């Protein structure tokens, strides 16, 4: 399979979420037109995106939703559950730990870390907050490949270096700065301010 553009990969979880809601509502088949209306993407774009990975529907009959869901789960490699570590136990870290929507979508937070002596050893939602000094050792031992970074910008790069040293290959970064990582490490940035700035451009147009 040739390299798929990242913008295409970024749309697959959107399709998957919409299809899963369709199943909850009792639907078993759909069309690219209907799916496009659900996610705000043209039917032609959806067909083009899916064609990067094979043939999933038939003209005139559309897509079998359970089959397409299973296919997307495999393409995204979330047909299994990935263990994830969370670093940074401020308000955002606490909120993420309380969120119940990870496991049923392929991700399991197995440990959380912080550098604050007042937080280390305390518990939240049955998690004991661990010392970030043990991050490299723990990540290597558990063969952790994914992490969520919720630390301040001032310490984000230092913690990222620890994650990389520990063998982590994918980092979801909430800190408002770009991280320097090896080419084999994937970083996804989540910055609400950037999202707001992007939307502000379109206001009053």
Question: Explain this structure to me?
Answer:
The protein is α/β, with parallel strands linked by helices and 205 residues long. The chain has two domains: 6-75, Winged helix-like DNA-binding domain superfamily/Winged helix DNA-binding domain (Arc Repressor Mutant, subunit A, Orthogonal Bundle), CATH 1.10.10; 82-194, Rossmann fold, CATH 3.40.50. Helix content is 41%, strand content 20%. It has helices spanning 6-24, 32-39, 43-51, 65-75, 91-98, 135-142, 153-165, 192-200; strands at residues 29-30, 57-58, 62-64, 82-87, 107-114, 123-124, 127-131, 146-149, 170-173, 186-189. The strands form two sheets. The chain has a seven-stranded mixed sheet with strand order 6-7-5-4-8-9-10, with helices on both faces. A three-stranded antiparallel sheet has the order 1-3-2. A hairpin with a 2-residue loop joins strand 6 (123-124) and strand 7. It starts with 5 loop residues before the first helix and ends in a 5-residue tail after the last helix. The model has no long low-confidence stretch (mean pLDDT 92).
Tags for this model:
single chain; 205 residues; alpha/beta; Arc Repressor Mutant, subunit A; Rossmann fold; 2 domains; 7-stranded mixed β-sheet; 3-stranded antiparallel β-sheet; 10 strands; 41% helix; elongated
